Amino acid sequence: MVMQAMSNSRASGFMKFFIFTLLGLAVGGLALSGSFNTGNVGSNDVAKIDGKVLGIQEFDRALRLSLSRYQISPQKAYEIGITEEILTSEIRSYLLLNEAENLGIEIGKDELAARIARVVKPNALDGETLQEALDRLLSAQGLSEKAFVNSIKKEVSADLIIESIKVGFSPSNDLLAKDLYLFQRQTRDIELILFPDNEISTIKPATNEQLTHLYNATKSINYKIPEYRSINAAIFDMSEIKVEFTVTDEEVKAAYEDSLESFAVGERLVLSQTIIQDKQQADDIYALTINGEDLKTAINAIMGEEATYIENVDFEVSRMLPALNEALDSREIGKTVPPVKTTLGYHVVKLDEILPPTTKAFKSVASEIKTELLEAQKSDHLYEIATKFDDLVNDGVAFEEIAKEIDLSLSTIDFIDAKGLNKESKDGLETFDEASKSEILTSIFELDEEEAPAIMLELGNKLIALSIKEIQTPTFKPFEAVEIELANQFMDDQRRAENRAQMQTYLAEMSTGGSTFEGIASDNNKSVQKIAKIALSGTIQEPLDESSRPTIFKGKLGEYNVLNLEGGSALIKISGYDFPEINDENLKEIEDIKGQLVEETKEAAILMYLQTLNKKYPTTVNRRLLDRAYGEQEVN
């Protein structure tokens, strides 16, 4: 109902976002690079992954939650490519969920409850039960408990597959680990002659013409007084709307009968099984069942405390892996079949029962249908109010007049610059939450200066309309106020340039034999400073800085080079190097490096696996919808 109303409404910038008001907890996927087929899917679907649909509402929740951490608006994220990365992440999650279902992975209630508790517990207030904390979080996010539980299931399924992939990759390369240890712990020794810029005394003061040219060239960077804007804001808080809705039993029954096909369940096999990585152990378990042991006893006998037993879980035949389906082709109740190899490992499976195709009984889904109908009523009601708000704003009605018809809070944002700072350099948006500040600030400086229209934003459960109150255009500090500063800057720049040119001259002389390192030091009454054991990381000795390391470690023994330092330059000579010895004292560090190599190899294996899933499950992305929702908005 809501989506139909949306498709029939006139297209305003805000209406493209209103339907996404119920922000939820999004379970992050794997942010990996990859490409997907483009094309058209459902008009309100962002992507379709092997038949599963990623709707615009669900994706928008994940997008906005991710962006809230970085205070970037959805439009800006789309412009710079972040939206693509987040969409890729969500699609990867769906790929893993598909694979989990096809592999017959079912998340047990105990595991699911434990995972939910781990998510909710850190957010519980003093004296609050976990259920109370969950209810509060769901209410604040406008998310149903069913949607939250499904998101947790998606996360757990992905974790199970990822961990299974990692188990099979544990490479060991002692030689590479030792080489990396030596590389990371190497040190260099140098000899250095320091030439401070302030020793250059041949620079003439700048003329007035030169200073004027420098001022004009740098004023937009160094001397700009930014534009300040003052804004009127009208805020409609949807969470404050308290309306009781009702759904009759007859309406629930009618909705059930209208959608009977969606409650159909195909033939199911009830299975008990274990999944292990070692083929021999799988064969040993199966051998015990052949000799009369029941499957659970056989698993415990071979696996001991490591045993994993999944009992009496039903799977739809149409969604089972072909290998498992073929292994159970005889449909012999109570029979344990020989080990079956899948991506997760070796399955030792017993068929407990065959359940015929059926349709979920009305009583089992009535509560779920009623909840969805109530949520649709609430969404439609809020949609109607928001549409009215949007229309009045677009028609240029004053905020004060709108407030007479719709319950709004009106406020003024005093003068702020494009960074959100007021004229005292303090936060000018402190009354707004951190997640909203970035989008509000972006919108304020997108407002048309001449027509001063209003912009409508959807931020969480709030609709915020902004309009210009006053604009103070940017100016610059006058030349007279910064003339002395410019004169000093000119002299510093010229000294720096002269000094660096002299260093290049010295390098050229040494390369041709016209001068020596020690001779240059003597001719300039300089001492040669020796700095030993310069490391690749950590504190670096003065006058060196972080920018010095690449030059030092790229140089060959006996080679000369120039370092550009703060306030000067230096001629250097690479005079020595040192690599640590491999002994019992550093074996622990080498083992740590080897562990890092193992983890990196596992991550590479996961990436390869996900690329395989990308090919296995056809994916279509509705880029036209993404462009309409997050691209440049039309102004009516």
Uncertain segments: 1-42
- The third-level CATH topology of the largest domain is Triger factor/SurA peptide-binding fold
CATH class of the largest domain: Mainly Alpha
- The total tally of domains equals 4
From the N-terminal CA to the C-terminal CA, the straight-line distance is 25 Å
Gyration radius, in Å = 34 Å
Structure explained in plain terms:
The chain is of the alpha+beta class and 636 residues long. It folds into 4 domains: 10-168 and 605-630, Triger factor/SurA peptide-binding fold, CATH 1.10.4030; 187-223 and 477-578, no CATH class; 229-244 and 366-472; 267-356, Chitinase A, domain 3 (Roll), CATH 3.10.50.40. The protein is 47% helix and 19% strand. It is built from 22 helices and 20 strands. The chain has a 4-stranded mixed β-sheet. Strands 17-4-19-18 form a 4-stranded antiparallel β-sheet, with helices on both faces. Strand 18 and strand 19 (568-578) form a beta hairpin. Helix 9 (174-185) crosses helix 21 and helix 10 crosses helix 18. The relative contact order is 0.17. Residues 1-42 have low confidence and may be disordered.
